[in-house]
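We store chain and fold; thus.
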Amino acid sequence: MCQWGLSRCWTVCAAHGEGGRMPQSDAPQAPSADACDGPVPLPAPSRTGGGAPARGPGQGPGGGRSPYRRLFEPKGAAAFTAGNLLARLPMGMFSVSAVIMIAGSRGSYALAGAVTATGLAVTALVAPWTARLVDRHGQARIAVPAAALAALGSLALLLCVHLGAPDWTLFAAYAATATTPNTGGMSRARWAHLHQGDAAAQHTANAFEQAADELCFMLGPVLAAFLCSAFFPEAGTLTGVVLLLTGVLIFAAQRSTEPPVAAHPTRARSPLRTAGMVPLLAVFLATGAVFGALEVTTLAYLDGPAAGGLLALQAAGSCVAGLLYGSVRPARSVPGRLTGCLAAMTALMTLPLLASRTGSATVLAAALLFAGAATAPTMVTGMTLIQRLTPRDSLNEGMTLAVTAILGGIAAGSATSGRLVEEAGAAAGYALPVAAAALALLLSPAARRGTRPGSRSVRP
């Protein structure tokens, strides 16, 4: 069960809106009635200043053009997106490949799970520091060497497994992969830079990135399992390394879209000290528990290859919902929107619980498809709020903190649901995602209080 839960973690880092399953919006905002814009509104850039052109009264986003077409109009946007998707796909491959490779060689899924869990824990510690370096020195200067170091860690793991090295070397090698850059967060930062002052375009960008997270979650584990079984156990890891390095190099080469670094950087205040940030991270922690509990319970409920297909259906529902959500004009109050999305998630998570009582895999598949519909809108809205709370010169760090919170939630949800399933049965495990979603909903008002006008939640 571990490999599926951890594969979800890695794709969230890209977290997903995450991201995965995680997610972006922000950059200087135009004056708005949005409660989270804060007391110091900034003027929107003019057409000559490189920002989005003003829209007349009653004119829809993009003046009738497709919001996704308008999103990719800036030069270089398509190129950095292509590189980012190549670099993000391995996030769903590495943990699955590692589990198959280690378990096949050492005959122990417990060892394989412990190695990948250790890598996740180290990532939670290292990722914010890597993101801080990106904020201070630029994406290209940090992402390329960080990806190279992570690739060396994956190759070292492969060699240790192949050569029969002691078990402790597996932990050390996989821990080195924690430097993998958060390409999903860097991509969202680029969208915020390219469409600064255009809240509608940034909303569409967040939705597109969340859909990309879900797509990688669906394809990554399947691709890894196919490569490892059709060719040789190390094939998934080798392919992931090639995709990661190629994607990061293509992404970093698009310098025209890279957010600029301050000419005279100062010691930025940690985003954790921003009002409303800690309660919002608690919401992300509880939301991550929804993901982890749902995956482990589904794997235990079906106990076979079909479970992977059902998880892919849940991700597909989230992917479609994210794309649709990005094509419409959202409500103006982002904190209020987040509460609404969490309420919808809580309600929809009851569907798998009810479906599990029928004993029908078909009914459960439909329930998971609909349950996924609230995931992407929730993550898109949460990441939008993270961006608005985070100081401009710490944007990558702020988003990575959100991803770290989701990772912690996934780990906690996976572990708790595993114990619940063993003691009370697989069907009972579906109660945990409902409880975790309800907890996130209860925590959301605390995050809203920190984003009211007059709070110190806006960027300096």
